[in-house]
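Hi all, long-time lurker, first post. I run a small reading group and we've been trying to get comfortable going from sequence to structure in the token notation. Rather than ask abstract questions, I figured I'd post a concrete chain and ask someone more experienced to write out its structure so we can walk through it together at our next meeting. Sequence below, copied exactly:
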Amino acid sequence: HSYGWAAQAGVDAARESLGGLLDARPDDIVFTSGATESINAAIKGVASSAGGRHIVSVATEHKAVLDTLESVSRDGTAVTILPVDARGQVDLDALSESIRDNTALVAVMWANNETGTIAPIDKIGAMVRERGVPLLTDATQAVGKIPVALEHVDMLACSAHKFYGPKGVGALWVRRGRGAVRLPRFIDGGGQQGGRRGGTLNVPAIVGMGAAAELAGDLVEVANRLSGLRDTLEERLLAAHPDAHVNGDVTARLPQTTSITFPGFKAANLMAELRALAVSNASACSSGSGRPSHVLKAMGLSDTDAGATIRFSLGRPTTEREINDAAGMIAEALAAVRNTTEAAGHGQLR
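-- Answer (accepted) --
Happy to help. Here is the structure in token form:
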């Protein structure tokens, strides 16, 4: 009936819009409840199809990847987790050497959610393809923020809310044709999405994801503006606390994310003074766990320095005035915590 046709037309338009953002064939996109489901479907699908073979990934991956790998390892799949350097980059030679004859998948995130470090996906993809191994990338932080090219990728996961779409909807792109990855059905029943993921589609959320993808087209212009604002924020904060330092690869990173360590301070105490700002000590998905960031620890930071780190994220609406106001608030918070600690006589850690 006409109401169903209208709903299907909305889903088809969203698939076209997301395909345009990814430069992908729309029919290769499966809508999911978010990147976590997409990653689970990809990793568990490969693991079940490969019959207990081998998967390679990196220590700074999102917990959606690391926890899923831990799950398949309990079912017999061998897993290799590679370390990173102080910039958060994996050694490409070590990655190449880790690939075995029975390696079924390599999983490397496009851009890190805490530091913004961007992996050389083109080099990694070309290298693993030469070995006949597919590459899965968690591009949740990259899609809608920087251009992504799928030439060297075989599967890509993303979430709508990271580029201003609704929460609770995402997608998994799976290459078909040359070098295709064959995955079992995500969810049985119903036959929706070409039989790949059964169940009634979340039409309003999918349409919202498509609309957000349509509006995310001016990536380069927005990235240039945000990277300038990010640099201004970093300059102001490093001037306010000369011992502070930026974490991650400062030459290959997202334009809107910065992770800064303030030695001698506790991030929790600083954030308590920053009630007008929305900042975090680590990934929003693991905030409140009480544990140091696994990303910062993998990059070599001590527990103390990881606990002295704050992640700042800018967005499309962020203005230069807001950056200057935020820098002033943070400088005031540093001074307030320093003065409180000195008055209490509690030593160096503030």
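A couple of things your group might point at:
Strands lie at 29-32, 54-58, 78-82, 103-107, 135-138, 155-159, 170-174, 245-247, 257-261, 309-313.
The radius of gyration is 21 Å.
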